[in-house]
C-alpha cells in the first residue's frame, strides 16, 4: 500500500460497517448514562403514578332497536321514520346514538337531576376549602363538561348492545352516574320523539286550516260558475247534449233546404233559357213546368177556342167587321190572361227559390249561433272541470292531513321507547387507572429509549478524533497506529526518550508497529524524507517524531531528526544539545552539516537543531539552500524525519510537505477537533502533498472504548514498563 494524494477533508463517502460499529461502541460506552436516564424516568413515572388518584369505572348495558315496538295498527305510522335493514343506515344510526349519549343535553339532565353542579366531591374541590373560594369555584365550574369527559360509549360488536361507561374517583358514584346517564339518554330519546311529534302536529294543524279554507273556496268557485252558466237546473252534460242535438237538427234541415234550393235553382235556370230561346214567341211559357195546371189549361183552351172563332170570322168578315173586331178583342183578353198566368208561374218559381235561399241563410245563422253556444258551454265545462279538480284535490288533501293528524295525536299518547336496559351498572372496587405495572413498564421502555437518544446525542456531539474509525471514515486517512498515554510522573526528558528507555513498554510496541506500517507503505520505494505534523499545537507531534525516530534507529537505520519548527523548536531540549548552530545557520551559509548534526544517546539517531530563530521561517524553507540541505542529508542518512509546525497555525508544514516524500499526521485522541483536522488536510491537499496516514496519539488504553480494540497492548508480555497514569506528551 502506497501513500496517495487525495482530498481527505471530504471524509469517507458513506457509512461503513466500521463506522456503525464505532457508533455502537460509543453508545455502549455510555450505557451507564442510558441506565441512569432509564432509572430516572422510571422513578419519575412511579412517583407520578403513585400521586394519581384512583379512578373507578362502571358500565350500563343498553339494547337499542332502530324503532320502538309497534303497538298501534300498521296504518298508524310515527313521525320518527320507518325501520330499515340497510347496513350503512344502521351504522350511522348507532353512531348518532353514541353522539346523543355523550351530548350536553343528556349530561345536563344528569347534572340537574343529581345536583352535580353543587357537588364539591364530584367537581374535585378540596374538602377544607374556604366557603367563599368554594362558592366562587362552584360558580366557575363546568359540571356538564366534566361529566361528558367521563362518559365513554362502547358499542357491542355485531350487536345492538351499547355499553355506557362512566369513570369517577368513587366506585359507587361511578355506578350511579352510569345508570343516570342511561336513564337520561332514554328520557332524551323519548323527549326528542315527543318534540318531533309535537312539531309535526303543530305544522299539520296549520296546514289543515289552510286546506279547509282552500277546499271551501274551491266549492264556492264551482257554485259561482254553475250559477253564472245557468247550470243549477240542468247539468252541464245535459246542456252539452241539447246543444249537440240542435246542431244535428240544423245540419239536417240545412241539408234539405240546400237540396230544395238546388232544385229551384235548376227550374229557374230552365225557365230563363226557354224565355231566351223563344224570342217573341209568347207560347214559350207553355213549356214551363206547372203550365199545364187546371186554371192555365182552361185559359189555354179558351184561347184556342177564341182564336178558332176569330179565324172563322176572318174568313167570313172583313177585318173591320164588328164581330171580327169583338172576336179579336176577346182573343186579346184571353191571350193576356194566359200570358199573365204563365208569368205568375215563372214568378212563383223564382219566389220559391228566393224563399229557399232565405231559409238557408236563417239556418246558417242559427247553426253559427248554436256552435258559438256549444263552444261557450265547452269553455265553461273546462273551467268547471278545473275548479272541480282543485276542489276535489283540496278536499282529498284535507282528509289526508286530517287522518295523519289523528294518527300523530294517537301515537303521541304512547310512551314506548326503542331503548331498554340490559344490565344496570354495579360498583366495581378495582380501579381502572392508574395502571401501575403498565406505567412502570412504559416508563422503563421510554427511559431506555430516551437514554439511547441521549447517548446518541452525546456521541453526535463528540467532535474530536478518538478512534481508528474516525481516522479512516471521517478523515479518509490510512490508520498507522496508536501511541498510548505515558506516565504523568515522568520528567519531560524521560517522556521524550520513553521508547528508548522503556523498550518493552506498550508505547515502544506501538511505535514499532507504526514504524512497520510506514516501512510497508511503499516497499519498492521506501520513504526517505518524512514530515510529521499536526493540526494544532500541544498534540504530541514532537514527542511522536522523536519516538518514531528512536523506533527506526533501533531497526538499524541511520535516522536524522530535523527540527523545522522555527517558531517553537524543542528537539534540542529533548536531547540536551545546543541550538547555536542549526538549520537556519546552514541555510544562510554559516557552518557545515557535519558540525550542525548532533549525535544522541540513541544509537543511529541524530538530530539537526533549528538554530537561531529566523524572522521569516516560511521563506527560509522555500530557498534552494534548504533543498540542498535536504539532499545532502539524504546522502548521509537512511531516514530523515522533519518535525514541522502545526498546519492550521502556519504554512511551514505545507511548504515542507512539497519537499518530502510524504506526510504523517499526528492526532491527539479526544482533543483534536475533526473540523480542524479536515482543514489541515485540505491545506495539504491544496499543495498535492502525499499522505502516508495518521497516528492516534495519547490514547488512554484503560478507557472502555479502547478495551476491545487495543487489548493486545495491555494483556500480553511483561508489564513492568507499562504506563500507569496519565499526561499527554507535548
Automatic annotation (TrEMBL):
Name of the molecule in the record: non-specific protein-tyrosine kinase
MF terms (GO), sorted A to Z: ATP binding; identical protein binding; non-membrane spanning protein tyrosine kinase activity
Topology in membrane: Multi-pass membrane protein
UniProt domain Tyrosine-protein kinase G-rich: residue ranges: 386-458
Residues annotated as domain AAA: 540-669
Phylogenetic placement of the source organism: Bacteria, Pseudomonadati, Myxococcota, Myxococcia, Myxococcales
EC annotation from Swiss-Prot or TrEMBL: 2.7.10.2
Similarity comment text for this entry: Belongs to the CpsD/CapB family. Belongs to the etk/wzc family.
Species name: Corallococcus exercitus
Transmembrane domains' residue ranges: 32-50
Pfam families the record matches: AAA_31, GNVR, Wzz
InterPro entries with a match to the protein in the record: AAA_dom, Bact_polysacc_biosynth/exp, GNVR, LPS_length_determ_N, P-loop_NTPase, Wzc-like_C
Gene3D superfamilies in the cross-refs: P-loop containing nucleotide triphosphate hydrolases
Chief location bin: membrane
